[in-house]
Every structure is written in structure tokens, then in C-alpha cells.
Write a structure and sequence with these properties.
Layout: E1 2-11, E2 14-24, E3 29-33, H1 40-47, E4 55-60, E5 63-64, H2 69-75, E6 76-79, H3 91-101, H4 110-117, H5 133-145, E7 151-155, H6 163-177, E8 182-187, E9 198-203, E10 206-211, H7 213-218, E11 223-228, H8 232-241, E12 245-251, E13 254-259, H9 266-275, E14 282-285, H10 290-299
Helix pairs in contact: 3-5, 4-5
Length: about 300
């Protein structure tokens, strides 16, 4: 459905993406996972024909994104990272406008957006600029879907919205996938990776790994511990100085610590922290998640 082959893009002297190759299957929910500045938006702008790559090819539904961009724009729905609808138009007016642009009507494709639109329909006379973050998100998704696209491209759609809205949004995506729509979504939230069929982990413009979330986690090789003490700030500083540390980062109320010695146990770490005068030390073995795998991949590059 989507075939990206060796695309690269440089802005002046800065390489945004380098030799990116991704294939997304029909009806797949594919996630592009990485922090801000990793290159996710650049890839999506190329996919949506808004930006030309310096090299490489991109095909979508057997159409060349560069040469056949007019056809491409008719089969995709795009939701950019920043809210880009008309803030002075009402919910209803925005939706009618986008339907008209694509030569359709709200009524014609209402079944496709019904589950989403009914949540914002009570506010249909409210101007888009006056909506909450979650409601703006639902309106933007409705507008991206109103022409019944084959491919839906969503650039960090859950950034800046509350946890409940994030959960609702991903439930909506799973329902949309069942309606014969291929979905490609980017996010900086590592926990959202597990909600995708497959993911590409990207950092500094390069793909580190592409696989199912389950396979990525199963290939984690580190010796991982969850650690906390009375002084978490000092704990972070001390563990960065610990000679066995591969990586350490905050995860909830704990620090996730990966150590070099695969046979090391929690007692050795506890003894070392006691020497550093930490109190109320709590250490336990931890099960890896996507974020741990991401940090492991970064440490080996």
C-alpha cells in the first residue's frame, strides 16, 4: 500500500532523514515512533506530496507520490501535528468546507465519521478555535476522513491532549482500520507503540528498527532494574556515574536502569547505593517496554 524506498532530505547543512525505507501493508496500523526532531514530520510531508525528497522514491496505492501528486491528494486524509482548521468557522462549517473541496457531502460519507462526529455534534455551532484539545482532535480527524480516503496519515495526533482523549483516539483508529483504511501515525509517546500493528523506531533521521511491538520487546537483551530512593534527583546523578550503567531514565515513579553485567543482581546495586548514602532503597527486576528497547538501541549506535 505504501512503499518508501531510500528517501533522504537535507535542510541546508542539516540532515532531516537519511535512507529511510518503510513498507506499510493494506489496512495496517503503522506507527512511526520517536522524539521531537527525529524526522517524523519530514517523512509525512513527503508522503503527502507537500515536500520533495532529495533522493529516493515513494509509492502509495501504486501511485508515484512525486509524479502523480494530484491523484495522491485525493486518496489520502492528512492530519498535521498543529491544529490547522479554520478557527473562525464553526465545527459544522469546517466539515462542510472540507467535504466541498473533495466534491462530496457530509451525508454521503457520514457513516465513516459517525462514531467520531457524534461526540462533537452537540458543539457543531461552536467555532473551532473555542473547542478543547480533545474536541479539536476529533474535528480534525472528521475533516481528514470526510472524503473517504484509502490512506490516513496522522502526525502526532495525541500531542497536548489529556490521557482520556488519547485513549479514545486510539480506540477510534482501531475501528477505522476495520473500514478498509490504511493508517500511518506518528507519536513521541512510547506507550502508544504497543497499540500499533507494527512500528518503526526512528532517531536523528534514521530508522533503528521496524517490527511488531511484541517482537521488539522480545529481542531486548539488557539486564533491567526499576530503582527508587528518597532522593530521586541525586539517584539519577549517581546512577549516571555508576560504572555498570548502560542507560538510566525516569519511568513513572522509578528509574529504569540497564546494566552491563547480565548476571548482576539487585543486592549489588543496593550495596553501591548505600555507600552513596541513599535511604529507603527499593530495587526490583523490571520487564522491558518499548521505551527501554528504544534506549537500548540508542546506546548501541
Amino acid at each position: 500500500m505504501i512503499r518508501i524506498q531510500n528517501i533522504s532530505k537535507t535542510y541546508h547543512d542539516i540532515t532531516a532523514i537519511k535512507n529511510i525505507t518503510i513498507e506499510v501493508g493494506h489496512n495496517e496500523l503503522f506507527g512511526l515512533i520517536g522524539p521531537d526532531g527525529a524526522g517524523k514530520t519530514t517523512i509525512f510531508r513527503i508522503l503527502t506530496s507537500l515536500l520533495l525528497p532529495d533522493e529516493g522514491t515513494v509509492f502509495m496505492d501504486n501511485l508515484d507520490v512525486i509524479k502523480e501528486y494530484k491523484k495522491i491528494r485525493k486518496i489520502i486524509g492528512y492530519m498535521p501535528g498543529r491544529f490547522s482548521l479554520y478557527q473562525d468557522l464553526t465545527v459544522e462549517e469546517n466539515l462542510e468546507f472540507f467535504a466541498t473541496v473533495f466534491g462530496t457531502t457530509i451525508e454521503e460519507n457520514y457513516d465513516l465519521i459517525k462514531d467520531i462526529y457524534i461526540q462533537i455534534e452537540p458543539f457543531r455551532k461552536r467555532k473551532a478555535g473555542k473547542l478543547s484539545g480533545g474536541m479539536k482532535q476529533k474535528l480534525a480527524l472528521s475533516c481528514a476522513l470526510i472524503h473517504k480516503p484509502k490512506v490516513l496519515i496522522l502526525d502526532e495526533p495525541t500531542t497536548g491532549v489529556d490521557a482520556v482523549s488519547r485513549k479514545e483516539f486510539w480506540e477510534m483508529l482501531k475501528r477505522l482500520k476495520e473500514k478498509d483504511i490504511t493508517i500511518m501515525v506518528s507519536t513521541p509517546y512510547m506507550d502508544e507503540a504497543s497499540l500499533c500493528d507494527r512500528v518503526a523506531l526512528i532517531q536523528k533521521g534514521e530508522i533503528m528498527r521496524i517490527d511488531t511491538p511484541e517482537n521488539i520487546i522480545s529481542q531486548y537483551n539488557g539486564n533491567l532494574f526499576a530503582v527508587r530512593t528518597d532522593n530521586m534527583y541525586q539517584l539519577m546523578k549517581d546512577l549516571h556515574q555508576y560504572e555498570e550503567t548502560i542507560s538510566v531514565f525516569l519511568f513513572g515513579q522509578y528509574l529504569h536502569l540497564t546494566v552491563k553485567n547480565e548476571h548482576m543482581n539487585s543486592g549489588e546495586i543496593q550495596n553501591w547505593l548505600s555507600l552513596k548514602e541513599h535511604r529507603n532503597i527499593h530495587i526490583e527486576k523490571a520487564k522491558p517496554n518499548i521505551e527501554d528497547c528504544f534506549m537500548e538501541l540508542m546506546s548501541t549506535r
